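## retry 2 of 3
previous attempt timed out at serialization; input unchanged, resubmitting
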Amino acid sequence: MDKTNFMGYYMVSAGGFLIGTILFAWFFLPAVLKGMLNAGSITGMLLSAAFMFYSIRYRQIHSFFCAYGEKSQCALFFCCL
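## retry succeeded, writing output
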């Protein structure tokens, strides 16, 4: 049985997506409203977009790294996430 079918998984996934959306807006709005675009804003937007993608595709990413971790000890760390 896949343990990620529980309602808690979906709540955490939706919460992660919501946090990522808020962080993306936090870094994106100054660029739109004030024209302030710098390396910190771009990095913040990229990291928050990556966080949103990870929260949506957690199952696929986790299973990929667990399968890869059986072959390599380096990816075993990502399996524990």
